[in-house]
Design the sequence.
């Protein structure tokens, strides 16, 4: 049975297995109809022109894990930012792990999506926010909406600075020969509040896994959100990440994406402005090799005046790897005084590596500062020669140049321990030991 038919046949049983309100039933029913009509995206769609899911969908994925899996902290400690204290929301094969988690309801809500969806005390919040910014037309977002029941629920009240970062961790154990999981995250940050969030999906063995994730982020007036996505999974892992961000006036939201592992990764990142003096930051580093494939699809929709957006994506591709950057800035007629900047810089280390870049500006206002740019090339041979003439071995010189190439994005990391972790991962990907503290 093909995966689409398996999902459609499983939907009714899924609905019967959970306790849900009639309004949520209607949302799910409409979502599964949309997925049934559209199916999985193909290369015939312009936004998926350079990314095919055909090879991934040939796996016989289990839609729901058949057995609970126990994981010891020692086995997964290295994936956490264990150098500092954090709140933790941890899932094993899509099931919440209370043993590995550290949630709270003291002043803030850092807990489970299933609780928020099914408990009456959260009904007003769910009615106001759930599925309000996520696309109703995108087929994989609709598929997630149809099956969504578990994930992270984070609600930060106004005038709150969250004292420690929040880690959202999804582990796949490989107990199933091939597993599909569909986490759903809802994050609400109140007026004048500040939060730092780290998200990671990690396989613990070599069995294929397909993660179809959706995250909705709502930043209220003057809120600050720093969001970090670490994507350094095994080579049989496939991730489709849909993130939707709603910003009210004077908010500052940054989403930093670090892509190093996985077989196929697709990041759909969508920002929507609902007020003036908003700042949106989209940063990314991609370093891949082999036959890995990473696709960044971004949209920033400027609909109000006096707002800014900054996109800075760096890519380093070796072997037969493939990168895609499809970034769009949309400036509506009312969005005067917009300052929007988009940049995609890429280095190809092999003549068989590929990058497909399509930066786009669609502007209907006449008083704006908007720019976009894309570069694709190789390492500077002159710089390499200079460094080697100063006694730096070729391998280390090459790594230093690539690290310097990525440094602007690395400097955007505001958690020192995470910054150190990312730079160590980069050093490992580049195959060197840096002779200074990163």
Sequence:
């Amino acid at each position: 049975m093909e995966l689409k038919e398996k999902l459609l046949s499983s939907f009714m049983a899924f609905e019967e297995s959970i306790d849900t309100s009639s309004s949520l039933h209607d949302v799910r029913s409409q979502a599964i109809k949309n997925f049934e009509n559209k199916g999985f995206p193909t290369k015939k769609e312009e936004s998926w022109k350079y990314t095919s899911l055909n090879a991934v969908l040939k796996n016989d994925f289990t839609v729901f894990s058949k057995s609970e899996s126990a994981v010891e902290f020692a086995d997964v400690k290295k994936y956490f930012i264990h150098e500092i204290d954090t709140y933790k929301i941890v899932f094993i094969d899509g099931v919440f792990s209370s043993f590995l988690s550290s949630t709270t309801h003291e002043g803030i809500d850092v807990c489970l999506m299933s609780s928020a969806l099914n408990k009456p005390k959260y009904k007003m919040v769910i009615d106001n926010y759930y599925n309000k910014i996520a696309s109703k037309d995108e087929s994989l977002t609709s598929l997630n909406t149809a099956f969504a029941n578990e994930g992270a629920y984070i609600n930060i009240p106004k005038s709150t600075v969250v004292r420690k970062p929040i880690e959202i961790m999804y582990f796949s154990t490989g107990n199933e020969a091939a597993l599909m999981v569909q986490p759903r995250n809802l994050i609400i940050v109140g007026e004048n509040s500040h939060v730092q969030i780290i998200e990671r999906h990690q396989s613990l063995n070599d069995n294929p896994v397909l993660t179809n994730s959706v995250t909705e982020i709502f930043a209220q007036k003057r809120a600050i959100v720093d969001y970090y996505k670490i994507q350094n999974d095994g080579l049989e892992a496939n991730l489709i990440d849909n993130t939707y961000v709603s910003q009210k006036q004077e908010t500052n939201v940054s989403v930093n994406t670090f892509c190093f592992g996985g077989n196929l990764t697709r990041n759909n990142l969508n920002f929507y402005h609902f007020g003036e003096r908003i700042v949106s930051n989209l940063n990314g580093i991609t370093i891949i090799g082999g036959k890995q494939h990473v696709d960044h699809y971004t949209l920033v929709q400027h609909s109000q005046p006096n707002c800014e957006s900054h996109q800075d994506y760096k890519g380093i591709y070796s072997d037969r790897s493939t990168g895609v950057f499809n970034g769009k800035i949309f400036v509506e007629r009312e969005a005067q005084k917009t300052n929007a900047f988009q940049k995609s810089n890429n280095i190809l280390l092999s003549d068989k590596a590929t990058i497909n870049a399509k930066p786009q500006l669609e502007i209907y206002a006449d008083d704006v500062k908007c720019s976009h740019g894309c570069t694709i090339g190789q390492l500077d041979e002159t710089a390499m020669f200079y460094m080697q003439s100063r006694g730096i071995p070729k391998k280390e010189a090459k790594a230093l140049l690539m690290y310097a190439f990525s440094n602007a994005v690395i400097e955007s990391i505001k958690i020192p321990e995470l910054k150190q972790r990312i730079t160590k991962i980069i050093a490992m990907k580049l195959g060197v030991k840096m002779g200074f503290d990163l």
Observations:
- The chain has a mean pLDDT of 91.
- The longest strand covers residues 209-219.
- DSSP finds ten helices and 21 strands in the chain.
